[in-house]
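Input record (one chain):
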Amino acid sequence: MSFRRALALAACGLAGGSVLFSAVAVGKQPARGGDAEPRTGGSAAGAVPPASAAPPGLLLLPPAAATASCPPAPGWIERPAGTGGYWDSNWDRREPLALINIKKKNEETGEEELASRLDHCKAKATRHIFLIRHSQYNLDGRADKDRTLTPLGREQAELTGHRLASLGLKFDQIIHSSMTRATETTEIISKHLPGVKKISTDLLREGAPIEPDPPVSHWKPEAVYYEDGARIEAAFRNFIHRADAKQEEDSYEIFVCHANVIRYIVCRALQFPPEGWLRMSLNNGSITHLVIRPNGRVALRTLGDTGFMPPDKITRT
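The corresponding structure, as predicted from the sequence alone:
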């Protein structure tokens, strides 16, 4: 039995309350007359003879047929057999085959025309996504307009802007959350990147993207995740994807937003379980760099980098 199958069955058993988790020590097994190997003779009606003996002190899970009525295992546990992993190459719904109507093809040219149309839809450029967390802000502000950057926060934004400028890249745009702390961070950063257009959006506002696993101590009603999660997922789908087929050159884009939004985006882009977003931590003014290749492959270059800041300027509020 494969490890992933064992996990899936165990998860199923825990959900149904009827199957014991595999590989759990249960102490010394009762003696079986000195018979170290499983008996191969007759068995009781309905019993399934084991394929191999259980290791000492371990319980075997029941066969798959016994758990057929259990709910399916989470998608990140159950993977296609023999793959050793799984990557959805059409995660952004921009695979060439997903962009054309394959039923519509010239009867005379057939496959040749299909190949030409597929080639026309292929991305050619790489997108570099720089996710910036806003700088330190006034936590005592009651409304968003009162949650302005602290003096230290303004210093942090200056350092982040200087760092981005020092990379020597031709940035295409800065897209930022419409919340005050993100807008102010953007204004300071943009002084170091003259001529780069700025775009404000409500999609990148802070929120609770999905109920985290493991859960947090402070409770939130399900409606909060239901509302915020849909908006943050919409931000991911709108902004995080491979380049358009018409894009000829690599692009460098900056997104100034919030810790929850960035952590969720990283999990989704890397196809990790999104419920794990709270297992990461990001400093104020930090830089996270994602790379999206023309074939849809995604790489995380840096996560929450603040190595360009003096230690006494680093905060996480």
